[in-house]
Amino acid sequence: MGAGIRILAAALLALAAVRGATAQLRQGYYSASCPNVEAIVQAAVALTMATRDVIGLAGGPAYPVELGRLDGLVSTASNVDGNLPPPSFNLDQLTAMFAANNLSQADMIALSAAHTVGFAHCGTFTGRIQTAAVDPTMDPGYASQLLAACPAGVDPNVALEIDPVTPHAFDNQYFINLQKGMGLLTSDQVLYADLRSRPTVDAWAANSSDFEAAFVAAMTNLGRVGVKTDPALGNIRRDCAVLNS
Ligand code: HEM
Q: Which residue stretches, if any, does this entry annotate as coiled coil (predicted)?
């Protein structure tokens, strides 16, 4: 499931990274013309629906997915470069990158809680622990555990659970971890370390219903980023993974 989630997350973020016209998404778009078509053939739609299902299976909130997006006509790895936030980003950098995609700071904080499940490779956080001075925003005990699992020279394929407390549950433990200095990535912990975003972390650590409502709203906003509905700009792929020939 880790690899599946990684692909979904990367694809979602890549979708979010490609800006463009936002229009005309709606629930039940294909229900009359072609029931089940989204789940069968269309990459962009299948990804958004599969993400919803993964979140639901992990105990997260249920939410409807707006449908009607077309698959892009271009798909290259180089299009992603510079459009995905690196784990070293601070609050202003994270906020700016999400704002460039019409997502608010609250959306960004809620979406970051997707890190309540999944893994991160040692190299994405060793800069915080493999130094003379461990990142002061990290709990020292947690830093010791991480260093034991990710010592200098560790196999680069080693990856750790991002939420060490409830790694398989989609819940608000992510925010409780941040309060304890147990955010794995700089971009996670900064949401609590920076006093401007801390009140939101505290609120969602205290109230999982409020977090779930914010997450659903943010996922809906994320799903509206870069949507293609103009047939000149997109089509429906016969095979999700391959451009139509
Ligand atoms: C806020 C900015 C974000 C940053 C800097 C960030 C960064 C990262 C990094 C560095 C990893 C580890 C990748 C690896 O080592 O293989 C990761 C994993 C993950 N991210 Fe994010 N991410 C962000 C936002 C998001 C969002 C918006 C979502 C989804 C809504 C998301 C979902 C995930 C998931 C599910 C994983 C685990 C993947 C796996 O288990 O293979 N992230 N993220």
A: none
